[in-house]
Amino acid sequence: MHYVLVDEEYNLNNGGRTLEVAHVEDIDHAADMLVGFLPAEGILVVADLFSRRGPLNVGNPSDGQLALYHAIRRQGWEVNTIVPIHGLPTTWDEFMSIVGGATQLGQAQ
Q1: What is the pLDDT of residues 64-89, one digit of tens each?
Q2: In Å, what is the CA distance from 75 to each residue of 9, 32, 41, 72, 86?
Q3: Which of 13, 61, 67, 103 is an S-S bond match for 27, by CB 3.0 to 4.6 Å?
Q4: 47 occurs within a structural domain
Q5: If DSSP codes are grouped into helix, strand and coil, which group holds residue 13?
């Protein structure tokens, strides 16, 4: 088995498609959470930082959702769709309706 340590970011490329992997900091759930981004498609794949199973919780982000927002901004990614492992795909605009004006970690209600 082969492992790759990802401190900040790691890119995989098969010659036709790139997957950018990044570490998400400042979350209580796990110190070593990773997210994956397909830049050509604008698709972000996340595990436990964001999962949508029903109506959006508009204006009431969790600390994990804020950490995800900051990771996306830090990476400079242009996200169109967030695909959670445990939920329904969500557009960037829908995600931003949850995060709202709360852009600092710890502002979750």
Answers
A1: 888 899 899 999 999 999 999 988 99
A2: 9, 17, 16, 5, 23
A3: 67
A4: yes
A5: strand
- Domain with 46 in it: 9-99
The domain tally of the chain equals: 1
Fill in the amino acid letter for 67. A
Q: What CATH number has the domain bearing residue 45? A: 3.60.15.10
Give the residue from 107, 89, 57, 108 showing the smallest Cα distance to 79.
89
Phi, psi (deg, nearest 5) at residue 34: -120, 150
In a domain, 105, yes or no: no
Note the pTM of the prediction, 2 decimals: 0.83
- Report whether 64 contacts 100 (CB < 8 A): no
From first CA to last CA, the distance across the chain in angstroms is 42
